[in-house]
Known about the structure:
The chain is mostly helical. It has two domains: 6-27 and 144-218, Helix-hairpin-Helix base-excision DNA repair enzymes (C-terminal) (Endonuclease Iii, domain 2, Orthogonal Bundle), CATH 1.10.1670; 36-137, Hypothetical protein, domain 2 (Endonuclease III, domain 1, Orthogonal Bundle), CATH 1.10.340.30. Helix content is 57%, strand content 0%. The longest helix has 19 residues, at 89-107. The two termini are 20 Å apart. The relative contact order is 0.13.
Amino acid sequence: MARESKAARRERALKVAEQMSIRYPDAECALRHSDPFTLTIAVLLSAQTTDAAVNKVTPELFRRWGTPEAMAGASPADVEEVIRTIGFYRVKAKNCIAAAQMICARHGGSVPQTMEELTALPGVGRKTANIVLNNAFGIVEGIAVDTHVFRIAHMLRFTSADTPEKVERDLLALYPPHMWGPINHQWVLFGRELCVARRPRCGQCALSSESLCPSARTVPE
């Protein structure tokens, strides 16, 4: 493929977004939650594990400690027991409690609504903060780059960056701010359904048929 100009890449990115919106017009967060706090905890737990695995443990977790005040007073051992089926459960249990304690101590029991304050919470990185701001408060400051978004951005050759932060920077440069919101949820669904890591289904993908994915021709069916 010839070297792509910035203008051509931006035009292709907009066409990708159009196709994603056609296929996933109602994409939303797959993590079960009822408010900003339960969403924050659910996203924190989802690091390096699946949303399905998190959704199996959060009903009991939130039944017992569904508010910052309740979680702040929880025993690490008790939280560990509830979430032990997900990866890194000991560290995550510690972070859940510490984040709840900080929310109570510094923010009056309410999840903060700024990137700086959210990323100061234990276990909360920029990806988590982006998802919480977007889904809980309707604030879009960036694009949440999880493993799906990271991989698909490379498949589409929208970036060659080696960290989620740098990938996000490249995507933000491609898309206008009003388009940032749905990208994470749409690309997650796309990554699960078609652009599967081990065996992408390029033959079933509109991005391939519309010549929008430079990797499509090199990926075996």
